[in-house]
Amino acid sequence: MESALSSLPDVDEELAGAVLSGLTRIEKRLTDTVAISDDMMAWTSRHLMDAGGKRLRPLVVLLAASMGDIADESVIDAGTLVELTHLASLYHDDVMDSAPTRRGTTSAHEVWGNSVAILTGDFLFARASALSAQLGAHIVALHARTFERLCLGQLHETVGPAEDADPFEHYLSVLSDKTASLLSVAGEIGAITSGAGEEVAAVMRAYGEKAGVAFQLADDVLDLRSDSQTSGKNPGTDLREGVPTMPTLLIRRRLAENPDERTRDIVARLDGDLSDDEDLAVLVDLLREDTSLETTLEMAHSLVGEAIEILSALPDVPARRALIDFTRGLVDRDT
User: What are the two backbone dihedrals, phi and then psi, of residue 120, each rounded to the nearest 5 degrees?
Assistant: First the structure.
């Protein structure tokens, strides 16, 4: 909870109190919602929840809801719904990406195997769906649409772009579906469940699409620049699994347009065997010094500017100022 509010150092005191209260209630609701008599599922479903996390998506729910009735019980259900959906997607993503760690702890599939990890993610999706049913048919439809986009984003990342497709457009569409969709729906249902109104909901929906992509582009850079102790993930995991990122796409384009020896070396390493930790570390070091990381950050900052511009349609209230600070923090971060 504190990690979520740390991105809002200058937040209005009254708003901070309301948000902290909401985050506390959501944390308890998360625990209650995944409670089950089955010992195995009770254990596996708490694995990532107990590992922590910033609860950024519930925070967006609450900031949007503060323009209505932030204390409404439906808002707490909405915040729990989006975090459960996010947690469920992490179980699946880690299987797809063969990620060894998540949030500083061993990934579920490394502990119990792929099947158990996938089934745990399915269980969390089921509990999230039950919550959406309590919030009404409109929220069910929004949640289903988001679930669909999460699946399509993962599918398109796995399959890759078609031969005649632009790899950059394809990659940005993957980020939009895999990351931005959930941030977008978080703000939207926060506005709806709090009674803030459709105009606020529409602004938050559009805002989340920009902010979510910016967040993931910054993550592409952090995956290379941070260490496992601060990020909770091993640097270069995407490289080892051959998952495209914006920096690697930029480097491949540079090779095609204006090849030089250093770029050829990097691409050869990207296409080579990275199962050895030393080989991976060499490539990570090369990429850390490459201009593609700064270019990716510039793209992220540009999207942050667009997201903040969208927020200008909201009333000039503490929540809008907090959202602006939050948005900047999505890119200017160390973890």
Answer: -65, -45
Domain positions in the chain: 14-331
Nearest to 48 by CA among 84, 21, 75: 84
Asked if 59 and 190 touch (Cβ cutoff 8 Å), the reply is no
- The terminus-to-terminus CA distance of the chain in angstroms comes to 15
What single-letter amino acid sits at 34?
V
| 280 or 53, greater pLDDT | 280
Are the CB atoms for 99 and 237 separated by under 8 Å? yes
Q: What is the pLDDT of residues 7-46, one digit of tens each?
A: 676 788 899 999 999 999 999 999 999 998 888 888 888 8
pTM: 0.92
Superfamily the domain 14-331 falls into = Farnesyl Diphosphate Synthase (1.10.600.10)
Distance between CA 110 and CA 291 in Å, rounded? 34
Amino acid at position 296, single letter: T
Cα(7)–Cα(4) distance, integer angstroms: 6
